[in-house]
Amino acid sequence: MEVSPSGSGSARFVGWVCAMAATTLALWAFSLLQAPWTVLGWVALVPWLASVDQARTSREALVLGGVLSATFTAVVFSWFPRALHSYSGAPVWLCWMLLLLTAPVFQLQFPVTALARHLARRAVGTRAAWLPPMASVLVFVGVEWLAPKPFADTLGQALVYSERLRQGADLAGAPGLTLVLLLVNECLLAAVNAFRRRGASFALRRLLAAGAIVLALMGYGAVRLHELRAATHAEPLLVVGAVQANITNYEKLKAERGAYEVVRMVLDTHYALSDGLLREAPLDVLVWPETVYPTPFGVPKSEAGAELDAEIAGYVSARAVPLIFGSYDVEDGREFNAAMFLSPSAGEGGAPERAVYRKSKLFPLTEWVPEAIDSEHLRAWLPWTGRWTPGPGPRTVALRRRDGRMLRVAPLICYDTLFPSYVAEEARQDADLLLTLSNDSWFAGTRGPGLHLTHAIFRSIETRRPQVRVTNSGVSALIDASGEVLTDIGDDQRGARVMRVPSAQVRPSLALVWGNWLGPVALVLAVLLLVGAALGGRGTRL
After folding, report:
1. PANTHER family, from UniProt (predicted)?
2. How much is the average pLDDT of 485-499?
3. Sheet (strand 476-479) strand order
4. Using CA atoms, how far apart are residues 247 and 241, in angstroms rounded to an integer?
5. Is 358 within 8 Å of 336 (Cβ atoms)?
6. Measured between alpha carbons, how far is 409 from 429 in angstroms, rounded to an integer?
7. Helix 109-124 crosses helix 131-146 at what angle (to 10 degrees)?
8. For residue 190, what are the CA distances in angstroms to 1, 20, 62?
9. d(CA 361, CA 388)
10. Is residue 493 within 8 Å of 474, Cβ to Cβ?
11. H-helix or E-strand containing 531?
12. Is 152 left (phi over 0), alpha (psi -120 to 50) or beta?
């Protein structure tokens, strides 16, 4: 793996192919989130980084980065074309073509890192051997923050099921874990090169550095876990009844049975599952998933809609338990994806009190089309595009417990969960609990629901807040402040759970106070390093 400009073109090409295949296969196994394959994350990038170091031109480096972005996307997101086909009806081959063509854009960190690494090596030569690897690490993390990523994926997320390692996310989120993975890969590549050039003793130093990084992260995780467990109270913060009815494909059901009959079936199913939970335990609140009531609540479109609204309100009053559920909200002709909070009236016989949270982070095209590209022509070409309006931003909602104590809930709807700074801003508004409603039915049976759950886990670690996550088809879950999933309802299953939310008072985390801070800091530092390398190289040549 030592950098060498020599060798025939065919030999170098074969070497690159082998390196690309090794890295792609390792990253695929790493992304499965299953032991022992997660260990591969610490070494997965070594073959690719070595091949980039052998690039003779900027063009070669860019090609190596672009190819890895495509192969990485193909193996890690192989589930997405099928989900896109299911949602849009477009041919599967077209969905695959779209995925691969956009890979260098949505995985921009690979080509930009390869180019930056090559330019840094060309600028400093052997004078500052540490600079190209450090610039590569910072560019990788910085570009991931800057570039568009529909699923906000990063390599560090694959450490989610390591109880100790994932605790480091309260410093800089999952990108912080990515940075650690990259540093270890760089140390191992340096060890291989040192062994070939200077022997085992020089390689040992790099190996010890890699081990020290991993041990430091594990040690930090152990300390934070001890703090969390010591601060956890015996009494639950909240007792929640979560309902996952696994009723999907609303549009197909409406075409077959009619809109009213579908809504009737959905409500009756949720009433029955909720009543079962109320018989099982005294609940502080019932929670149903995103858009479970697929029509505006409180602004009915018909007389039948007004009757259904009144029925839901009557259910809350009769059971004397708050209900949180996904619906639509309408104002001035604009429609919002919303979470409705209905609480029994404090006065006898009064209508339930209502609060609304409007989803702010809408998935591009399927939920919302930017005004700059919105047109009737576009909507005729892509009839599945959405018309929702983004909500006003982060906010919390007050919720009353059975004992009368008021708690502040940070509501999130589906895509909101992918944005660490957004969630942190809600949590900073004295939120006691993260509450996520989601609809992952288009990804049922794929790795999509698992990826979405992973994001939710990291939001709890970063903010050190417990989280209740309720989806229509899975994965619904109760997550504590350490990121442990205490109970769940699996993908493509029907179920209902009583979730006793743990309460813990811990010191604020850096990720909570500063949000998603690492990306911009890494990008600035990378630019400074690369500019310094370029100026230093110019001075040497002069």
Report:
1. APOLIPOPROTEIN N-ACYLTRANSFERASE (PTHR38686)
2. 95
3. 397-400, 406-413, 433-438, 467-471, 476-479, 485-489
4. 18
5. yes
6. 9
7. 150
8. 9, 19, 22
9. 11
10. yes
11. helix 518-541
12. left
The pair of three-digit structure tokens given for residue 471, joined into one six-digit string: 């989806």
| CA pseudo-torsion sign 165, 167, 171, 173 | positive
Angle, vertex CA 184, rays to CA 179 and CA 186, nearest 5: 95
Alpha-carbon distance of 37 to 159, in angstroms, equals 11
Residue 96, judged by CB atoms within 10 A of its CB (0-12, 13-18, 19+), counts as middle
Residue with tokens 């004397």: 320
Distance separating alpha carbons of residues 85 and 76, to the nearest angstrom: 17
DSSP letters for 296-318 = BSSS-SSHHHHHHHHHHHHHHHH
Phi-psi sector, 430: left (phi>0), alpha (psi -120 to 50), beta: left
> With b meaning 16 or more CB within 10 Å and e meaning fewer, what string describes 470-493?
bbbbbbbbbbbbbbbbeebbebee
In this prediction, residue 4 has a pLDDT band, given cuts at 50, 70 and 90, of: very low
Task: List, in order, residues 6 or more apart from 397 with CB less than 8 Å away.
Answer: 341, 355, 357, 408, 409, 411
Q: What is the pLDDT of residues 17-26, one digit of tens each?
A: 999 999 999 9
Give the tens place of pLDDT for each residue, 377-418.
888 888 878 889 999 999 999 988 877 889 999 999 999 999
β-strand partners of 524: none
Tokens describing residue 293: 């009531």
Helix (H, G, I), strand (E, B) or coil at 389: coil
Give yes or no for a contact between 411 and 443, defined as CB atoms under 8 angstroms apart.
no
Ramachandran region, residue 263 (left: φ > 0; alpha: ψ -120 to 50; beta: rest) = alpha
Residue 89 CB: number of other CB atoms within 10 A?
Answer: 9
Distances (CA, A) of 390 to 103, 358, 500: 27, 7, 32
The reported pTM is 0.93
Residue 2 has pLDDT above 60, yes or no: no
- Among residues 207, 197, 181, 188, the alpha carbon closest in space to that of 50 is found at 188
Instruction: Identify the pLDDT of residue 8.
Output: 65
